[in-house]
Amino acid sequence: MSDIVRGDPSTYPDWFSRKKSTTPLIVSRWVPAILVGIPVFVLLAIVIYPTVWMFYHSLRDTNIQGLFMGNHEYIGFQNYATVVGSERFQDSLVHLAQYLTFGACLQVIIGTALALTLYEFVKSNAARTVILIILVLPMMLPPSIVGVLWRFLLTPSNGAVNQALLSLGLIDAHIEWFNAGVSLWSIIIADCWNWVALPLLIVYSGRVSLPPAVYEAARVDGANQWKVMRRITLPMLKEVIAIAFILRFTDAFKFVDLVYVMTSGGPAQTSELPTYIAFQRGIREFAIGEAAAYAIIIFAISAVLITLFLKYMKRVMKAQGLA
Fold first, then answer.
1. Contact, 249 vs 100, CB < 8 A?
2. Checking phi first, is residue 269 left (phi over 0); if not, alpha (psi -120 to 50) or beta?
3. pLDDT tens-place string over residues 215-261
4. Which of 6, 29, 134, 287 is deepest in the core (most CB within 10 A)?
């Protein structure tokens, strides 16, 4: 026994002493290089190179002719000064704040409420599946199709939304959904209908994964359903809800297609968002340098806001002993 402890090779079993196969698991030394190199190449091609290219042209007076002829000049941060000092850009930031508050946040709130209602009050698995499929269907539609659909639904004269509101007695006259001051709300309504299913699916999946033992203990202690929801379910779903919010928050900074189809930023630029202006300046007006500056500024704003939100969530969870 002491020889075995000391590691005497003669005491090892026969199966351990047999010669092992010398065939390597990786046949060729190029396999690791290929497995690592392909993702790195894709990352360079679709993320790093476009970002560097965009920053390079944001410092130059690049237009469509200068882009192909190569005669653009270095102008420093003049494009950034033009963007930040533009009243159009400042108004678009106000529109973005409105969309984030009443669009992205509202989608997460509605999606969370629908997910918890579906899980808590619909007991049949078949009925849950059918309802989930119905609720997820709008998310399967392209935003351009959603924009066309809601443009017809919100038609002031004979649109289905105005007719329904008139029939219910909620309004006395037709609402001009595409007038100044209202057009952005029409976009928010359409976007909520299109994407509320995303936070719904995320929160529903999180609720399904919660341990049943916690709820059994709460029922034994006599907690009613509202207390269980407020004291157990929502605190345990904080991280999941935060993920849903971040996904919708980041999508707000690339929100172009629905705006273009429904209002084209109008009337009088009252429904423009920063990304839509960047699209207009770069793709339609060929001011490549200024559009690149828009993109860099939008990226910086989104990065700062998401970082602050993550720090806030970490502080909240740490205070509750969850992180």
1. yes
2. left
3. 888 888 777 888 888 888 888 888 888 889 888 888 888 888 888 89
4. 287
Q: How far is CA 139 from the centre of its chain?
A: 13
Give domain limits for the chain: 82-319
Q: Does residue 32 have a cis peptide bond before it, meaning omega lies within 30 degrees of 0?
A: no
CATH of 82-319, picked from 1.10.3720.10, 1.10.455.10, 1.10.150.530, 3.40.50.170, is 1.10.3720.10
Give the residues across from 74 on adjacent strands.
Answer: 60
Beta-carbon count within 10 A of 248 CB: 24
Residues present in the chain in total: 323
What would the pLDDT profile of 42-62 be if each residue is shown by its tens digit? 988 888 898 899 899 889 888
What does the alpha-carbon distance between residue 312 and residue 214 come to, in Å, rounded to a whole number?
Answer: 27
- Let me know if 271 is exposed, middle or buried by CB neighbors in 10 A (0-12, 13-18, 19+): buried
Measured CA to CA, the distance from residue 219 to residue 22 in angstroms comes to: 60
pTM above 0.90, yes or no: no
Q: Is 258 exposed, middle or buried (0-12, 13-18, 19+ CB in 10 A)?
A: buried
The pLDDT of residue 2: 47
How far apart CA 36 and CA 39 sit, in angstroms, is 6
**19: how many CB neighbours lie within 10 A of its CB?**
5
